[in-house]
TrEMBL record:
Natural source organism: Sphingobacterium athyrii
Protein name: 2-hydroxyhepta-2,4-diene-1,7-dioate isomerase
A GO MF label: metal ion binding
Fumarylacetoacetase-like C-terminal domain sequence ranges: 2-189
Pfam families from the UniProt entry: FAA_hydrolase (PF01557)
Length: 203
């Protein structure tokens, strides 16, 4: 499987990092070695002094697709979860300043926290999902998928023009405003509505 991650998919998040609002989805990849599941601990890497959380709703791709049409895009994901796109912000800023790709700041080991997945039919409205992140018991990020710039279907259509989607792939759909740093000893807990989806201790 692969992780397809979307950057700057909420207007306020783009603004908080002083980035322009994109006209098309911004796509980057994380390898399977980035996955951190089953509420396992995250170990702070030695190459960064500024690891930041980015909480995101995640889609699970359920079948292979290339050049997916808008009419059928909604049939290409079957479940929804919650994740964190950990970002080495200092590394990213250095790479961006030199017009280099982001991968070292985004694709490192265990940089993609993922919860268990909920079948999409079990959610009242997949297009209006309230989600949040608590850091040491305090809510630090809140979002709703209705505020995304590009919908799930638009992301699937656009991505599949360039990259074949395969069963089991994960699509991280972007983060809302409120990203911030983590420190050793922190406890991060993600929620969809009132349902806790994951917990992650920083070590």
């Amino acid at each position: 499987m692969k992780i397809i991650a979307i950057g700057r998919n909420y207007i306020d998040h783009a603004k908080e990092l002083n980035n322009p609002v994109p006209e098309n989805p911004i796509i980057f990849l994380k390898p399977d070695t980035a996955v951190l599941k089953d509420n396992k601990d995250f170990y702070y890497p030695e190459f960064s002094q500024n690891i930041q959380f980015e909480t995101e709703v995640v889609l699970r791709v359920c079948k292979e697709g290339k050049h997916v049409t808008p009419k059928f895009a909604s049939t290409y994901y079957d479940a929804i979860g919650l994740g964190i796109d950990f970002t080495a912000r200092d590394v990213q800023q250095e790479l961006k300043a030199n017009s280099l790709p982001w991968e070292l700041a985004k694709a490192f080991d265990h940089s993609a926290v993922i919860s268990n997945m909920i079948p999409k039919e079990d959610l009242a409205d997949v297009y209006a999902i309230d989600f949040s992140l608590q850091q040491n018991g305090q809510t630090v990020q809140q979002g709703n998928t209705r505020d995304m710039i590009f919908s799930y279907e638009e992301l699937i259509v656009y991505t599949s023009k360039f990259i074949t989607l395969r069963k089991g792939d994960l699509i991280y759909t972007g983060t809302p405003v409120g990203v911030g740093p983590v420190a050793i000893g922190d406890l991060l807990e993600g929620y969809i509505g009132e349902q806790k989806m994951f917990s992650c201790k920083i070590k």
